[in-house]
Amino acid sequence: MERLEALARIRAARLDKKMTYQALGQAVGRSPVYVAAALHGQQRLGPEDAQKLATALQLPQDVAAAVSAFPVRSEFPIVTDPFKYRLMEIVGVYGDSLRDMANEMFGDGIMSAIDFTLDMEKVTGSQGEARVKITMNGKWLQYKEF
Question: What is the pLDDT of residues 63-116, one digit of tens each?
Fold first, then answer.
């Protein structure tokens, strides 16, 4: 089975089982954001975690093995999707300010996207409205002087 087809089948199984990413993350033992990225082909799960995924979603192991392939991260950013567009807009509006503040706090460097975690949670605003809270946590990498 082709990888993209297998990933689509895994995502469909998650919906059929009415399993949230939170619950699937718990079943696999990984962050729900990380598991969601694996189901979209942007991260990978090791064979042991793929087995846990297969068990949780009652899928054949050969289908779940699709999440163990090394990802080819070449299809982003697609900014026509409104959610992705807003994230890009946030970087566009605040990116320079965040970079300047990070340089002020840490020196000349960058935030790792490899030694990195990403979390998202639903919180309640001051007027009772639903809000999204996204936390990025990356290791700071100093630029080398030579």
Answer: 989 999 988 776 666 678 888 889 988 888 788 788 888 998 999 999 999 999
* Annotation marks residue 89 as catalytic: yes
Choose the catalytic residue: 5, 73, 112, 131: 112
Active-site residue flag, 112: yes
Catalytic position from the list 5, 48, 89, 121: 89
Please state, in angstroms and rounded to a whole number, the distance separating the CA atoms of residues 131 and 125: 6
pTM: 0.73
The alpha carbons of the chain give a radius of gyration, in whole angstroms, of 18
Strands (E), the chain: 109-124, 130-142
Q: Which two tokens stand for residue 71?
A: 């990802």
Query: Which of 5, 48, 86, 121 is the catalytic position?
Result: 86
Asked whether the beta carbons of 106 and 140 are under 8 A apart, the reply is yes
Distance between CA atoms of residues 53 and 57, nearest Å: 6
Whether the CB-CB separation of 68 and 6 falls below 8 Å is answered with no
